[in-house]
Amino acid sequence: MRYTNGATTNGHHVNGDHTNGHITNGSSNGQGPSKPNVDVYVDVDKIALSPSAPDAVPALINYIATSKSISLEDSQERLKLRDAAISLANALETPREAIVRHGWTTATRHAAIETALALGVFSHLARDKPRSVAELAATTKSDPILLSRIMKHLAAMEVITEAGPDEYTATNFSTTLSVERYGDAFPMLSSSMYLGVYALPAFLKENGYRNPNDPTRSPFQLGRRSDEHFFECVQKNPTLNRQFNNHMSIYHQGRPSWMDKGFYPVRERLIEGADLGEKDVFMVDVGGSIGHDVSEFRRKWPDAPGRLVVQDLPEVIETVKDLHASIDPMAHDFFTEQPVKGARVYYMHSVLHDWPDDMCQTILSNLASAMKRGYSKLLINENVVPSVGAHFETTSLDIIMMSIASGERTERHWTKVIESSGLKIVKIWTVQKGVESLIECELA
């Protein structure tokens, strides 16, 4: 198939009267759909083959060149350098190259990784000794021709390293994927979340491009051809449930935690002034799954008084095990009345972004009714989308959540939802771009 500018004949594009990619002012003059109106003559073909942001290149190169001495152990400095390198690559890339990258590599890389995971390929690769496709095919009982194609693409995408013709070694990335807890992200996303994301354009078009706000009628239901909400699917499918919990556990790894010193003043704001006995409740983790966060809190703040409670639905709480003796698992639906009254802290981590505003108001109102004025605090550990300069991790997650009729929120949006529930924001604590903030709330 050869493509050149112009009209189409017999499946081939030949030179014709389609302006060869040029856009000018004017209408279609009855010759078809109107062309976009622009103020000046634009040579789109020239733009498509030129760097996307040439003016940004010198400053980015200078920043990267002067960053040679940074410590890669400093996560904030490392991330700044990484983001600058990504920005430089994007600035140097032409629009045509960007179209190919966005259109071709995202889906194909995912498909190749998930196939390799299913075959167990990453577990058989080593960094110190190249493994041949023939050897890997025999070990994984797969077709060597198929495996060769998959491995070539993984090497082209730098997931693994090519050591010679049909020979490969591992990278840190592929070694990490060989552990189920990390690799589970790929089959989980393709079998569930992506169904809604890929259905999003059609859903929005069908619904007049209105913001989805009904979790029972969302892009996810359209993509999956089911009436079930995402979390219903997770609860009914043990494999998906495990994969989702694994992905959530690794998503937060290596990211600043509000419990760390320098983020939120835990001792000054929570521990000091706490008035409770050994059996009284200090913190309630609402919708806390199997207790990752309360366990982290107990490790980092062992002298915090009282007991900790982790709440979730009965089928989740049944799977909880190996908690510290001071942590109590409790079955609870946060859409109903909160049974623990007057705790020092009520805490939610990435819960409210799962639900539209009206359902968040119900959750928050139930907590407000249980709080003790002048004493109890509500801590909401969520993304706060900045007005400008939002990070791609935050905006990507927002689109994913849009597919189930929820989303990330700006400070203005958070203020509206929280204040409508009888609460007020005391302060929003943020330490790093692209990382969840801590929204500190009290009764209004």
From TrEMBL:
Compositional bias segments (type: Polar residues): 1-13, 21-34
Transferase: is it a keyword of this entry?
Answer: yes
InterPro entries, A to Z: COMT-like (IPR016461), COMT_C (IPR001077), COMT_dimerisation (IPR012967), SAM-dependent_MTases_sf (IPR029063), WH-like_DNA-bd_sf (IPR036388), WH_DNA-bd_sf (IPR036390)
Task: Show which residues constitute the signal peptide.
Answer: none
- Keywords (A to Z) from UniProt: Methyltransferase, S-adenosyl-L-methionine, Transferase
Q: Which GO terms describe its molecular function?
A: O-methyltransferase activity; protein dimerization activity
Q: Where is this region: Disordered?
A: 1-37
GO annotation (BP), single: methylation
Return the Gene3D superfamilies for the record.
Vaccinia Virus protein VP39, Winged helix-like DNA-binding domain superfamily/Winged helix DNA-binding domain
> Residues in domain O-methyltransferase C-terminal?
282-423
Start and end residues of each O-methyltransferase dimerisation domain: 111-177
Q: What name does the UniProt record give this protein?
A: O-methyltransferase
**Which species is listed as the source?**
Aspergillus ibericus CBS 121593
